[in-house]
Design a protein that fits this description.
ComplSys_Reg/VirEntry_Med, Complement Module, domain 1, signal, four-stranded antiparallel beta sheet, Sushi/SCR/CCP_sf, 5 domains, disulfide bond, Sushi_SCR_CCP_dom, 38 strands, mainly beta
């Protein structure tokens, strides 16, 4: 009777069904142990004949059967060829074969937050080895991992050790906690190697205790609330909010809107209480940066512009002393962010 192997067999383990691997095909080399079928998790070691080398980095290599596939396909290549290099904190375009012929050149792109050391960006395969491989080192303006903040977690961002300048991450407070401004989310930014100040998450104020009683006091009596909301006409003159105006007035409430370059903080609606007092008012906090080019003569900004105002989160191009050139300036957390470079408005070129 003739038995033909189909490349894998199914094995049953307590954790479920797994697949075994058939022996790999290896030209110009050999492996051990020599078997026709390898069970899941089984390892083999291989090496290459004279004039050849593994497509990995050592003269002997181990590969593992992982659910019907080898962790990497054993392969022997000509000694003059180059294996894929490992570039910490850098990337390059890889080819399908996994190895490069003599004379092949690769270009390295450093990850965000890293830059090329000594300006070297390419490497060339020569006699089985790469000429000086580029090194990606942490940029002087990059930031390390963001700080851990009590009762908060970073959202919408995978973990990484280094962040490029101008990076932003967002924190969200734990349930039952808010920032001091009343928000539950807050951004911080990487500026010149340092993170801006993060939020402070404090326990949200509540008028009801854990036992359901008012103010958290344990009592068997029920307080009678004598103050209730009435029409806004009963409170007389409308309250003044600095840098804000009444944007909407209903019969039972007021809504305030802040002036340009200011942000609304606090309650959305203001109501009139039965005792003739107003409910807590919102505030309009400054949300802009002020830049006076005259204070930075070394920046090459055009003199005589006067103070420039930039809204929070926006970028404004400030004219430079050269025609058609400007410097992009961004306002983040009321701090001015700029690379101190004047750029061609049309072409995007940078002035020296």
């Amino acid at each position: 009777m003739c038995i033909r192997y189909l490349g894998f067999i199914l094995l049953w383990f307590p954790g479920g069904v797994t697949q075994s691997c058939s022996a790999p095909s290896l030209d110009h080399g050999f492996f051990a142990p020599k078997q026709e079928i390898y069970s899941h998790g089984k390892k083999l070691t291989y090496t290459c004949n004279d004039g050849y080398k593994p497509a990995e980095k050592s003269w002997w290599v181990t590969s593992t059967c992982e659910n019907g596939k080898w962790s990497h396909q054993p392969q022997c290549i000509d000694e003059s060829f180059c294996a894929e290099p490992n570039i910490p904190n850098g990337k390059y375009t890889k080819i399908q074969t996994g190895w490069y012929k003599v004379g092949a050149t690769i270009r390295i792109r450093c990850d965000q937050g890293y830059e090329h050391k000594n300006q070297a960006v390419t490497a060339r395969c020569q006699d089985g080895a790469w000429t000086t491989l580029p090194i990606c080192e942490k940029s002087i303006n990059a930031c390390s991992e963001p700080p851990k903040i009590q009762h908060a977690v970073i959202i919408n961002q995978e973990y990484q050790e280094v962040f490029a300048v101008d990076s932003e991450v967002q924190y969200e407070c734990e349930d039952g906690f808010t920032t001091e401004g009343g928000d539950t989310k807050n951004f911080i930014y990487c500026l010149s190697g340092t993170w801006t100040k993060g939020p402070t998450c404090v326990r949200a104020k509540s008028d009801t205790g854990s036992d359901g009683s008012a103010g958290g006091h344990t009592t068997s009596t029920v307080s009678i609330i004598t103050s209730f909301i009435i029409t806004v006409d009963n409170c007389g003159r409308l309250p003044h909010v600095p840098n804000g105006d009444v944007g909407e007035q209903g019969q039972m409430f007021l809504k305030y809107q802040c002036s340009s370059y200011y942000k609304h903080v606090g309650p959305e609606k203001v109501t009139c209480n039965s005792d003739g007092t107003w409910s807590p008012l919102p505030t309009c906090e400054a949300a802009f940066c002020a830049l006076d080019p005259a204070q930075y003569p070394e920046s090459n900004l055009r003199p005589g512009l006067g103070v420039q105002y930039i809204k929070e989160g926006e970028t404004k191009n400030i004219p430079c002393i050269w025609d058609r050139m400007s410097m992009p300036v961004k306002c983040i957390n009321r701090q001015i962010i700029s690379r101190n470079r004047c750029k061609d408005i049309v072409r995007g070129a940078t002035a020296a």
